User: Fold this.
Amino acid sequence: MKRDSSIVLVAAILFCAGAVAAPLAAQQQASASPGRDILTRSKSAGFFLGGGLDGDGIADSNDNSTESGGGASLVIGYGFSPRWSLYSEFSGATMNAADGFGTYSLAHFDLGTRIHFRTGPNVVVPFLQFAVSGRAISADVDGTTVTGSGAGFTFGAGLNAHFTPAVAFSTAVTWTAGDFDKFQVGSQVVSTNASVNATSARIHLGIVWFAQ
Assistant:
């Protein structure tokens, strides 16, 4: 991801998160008073479903090239407790090839765990996430579809800022590291020992809903 674009995207996330979290936190502080039971202002346990827009970037460690694009993602999970959850996430983006050579698609599939903090009496709930991931790229070259895929490891962090205990604005930044080592041209599998090591990053802005 180009540096200037990354700075703008991260600044936008921080601004949006602050704009949502500040009034919610003020409301939380104003409504809490000594001698009253602490209200439940956020949930993390049970089934949850979320979606939103992503800004994606990928860097090839072999030639230090970076490319960026945008897309969307869907997350489904289940919280076994207010802290520990299992989740799966699918994201797809249209990427701009380096030097202006067209576009291609980049997809991620993650299966991992989310660790939520401060759930219950707080409206702002940070989380960490770790996952094993599959990635794939696909491009049309002179009418022929060329694909590459491989496995990786994903880690990241984010926060949910709750409008209600069940509905929250959600933002996260994740990184996936690994190799693309399976290639195909049309229907023909390419047999090669070569691999491409690449790190991809995703910046997510969306909504998440926790079942009552």
Remarks:
- The chain is about 15% helix and 60% strand.
- The chain has one domain: 3-31+43-210.
